[in-house]
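Before the break, one more example. Copy the sequence into your notebook; we will annotate it together after we see the structure.
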Amino acid sequence: MCCRVLHRWLFAWSLAAILYGGAAAFASEAAPTSAADRGEPAMIPHIALLLPVNSSVFARPAEAVKLGFLTAAKTQGRAPLPIRIYSVTDDDRNIVAGYNQALAAGARFVVGPLTRNGVSALAASNAVRVPTLALNVPDGAVPVPPNLYMLSLHVEAEARQVAQLAVKEGRLNAFTITGDTPLLRRIHQAFVDEFTRLGGKHVAAYEFSTDPAGLTRIKQAIGLGLADMAFLALDFQRARLARPYLGSLPLYATSQIHPGNAGPLAGFDLADIRFLDMPWLLQPDHPAVMVYPRQEFRDALDLERLYALGIDAFRIMQALLEGHGGGALDGVTGRLSLGRDQQFARELTSAQFAEGKLLIFAGQQ
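Here is what the structure looks like once it is written out:
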């Protein structure tokens, strides 16, 4: 029992570290083996996929990305160059060593690293000499080399997009409700920063509590009519507990509240909460989505997201190699566009539960 609990904790930790950042790295494993040691030709032009596929901690998330990338290559009919997988860990030196190994073996394009600290290490290493698509963003204000592009699922960008949507819809006075985890606090701060930057007023912040008295205080504050919306920096479990206390006030949230396969009552529990998520999870009949086969991830919604990330990573890599990566692209993780900061922004799909059913706001965030 103890081992199973530890395994589940490590799996959840690895997903959080990749998708949301803010987690410390584990100790390094062995450095990647050289192409010569594996009996491979020393110099062949190829695409390098730099992922922790043999890591005891990050293997499952890395496999989901790899599967999405290779599925996209197969669906497209062919890759522009052969694809090689380079297994690295979450150790900074190991990641840079793996990157240099790929260059020495003839890589013309590198996809990876996957973790936030890995992207930071690579950006600071002066090693980036070929076009590279990192699958996360660096920590802090690390200068980004000209050849380093970024596609990520970081939730701060989602929170900013929710703020933009709310202001676009005329919401100018916001209550916010946040959970007590570092991730939920980062989501909350990103929303507040963007909402106030756009001219909105942050009326008050409330800490989520399972205590009915605390939730009742939130209900009473909402009844004062000081706000025209509330932003929920909460996950699904917290949001479903808070929802009965929030009345008819317009509610907004990020993909953290997406219930996945939580059961038929989940839509009723989240009634009228407007949230954003990727087309892969909200629009299975979208033309950009339906061409790719689904995988069975046993209800692990974050693995679905990483699989979709792998698909879009292949498509962006292909576009960059063909010289038109700056144009907009209908991706499975969102409508993709390259910004001046060399990050691919993802315009997400807007959805809302009504009478237990999921409504999609087509053509909008």
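The longest helix spans residues 301-321. Residues 2-150 form a domain with the Rossmann fold fold (CATH 3.40.50.2300). Try to locate both features in your own notes.
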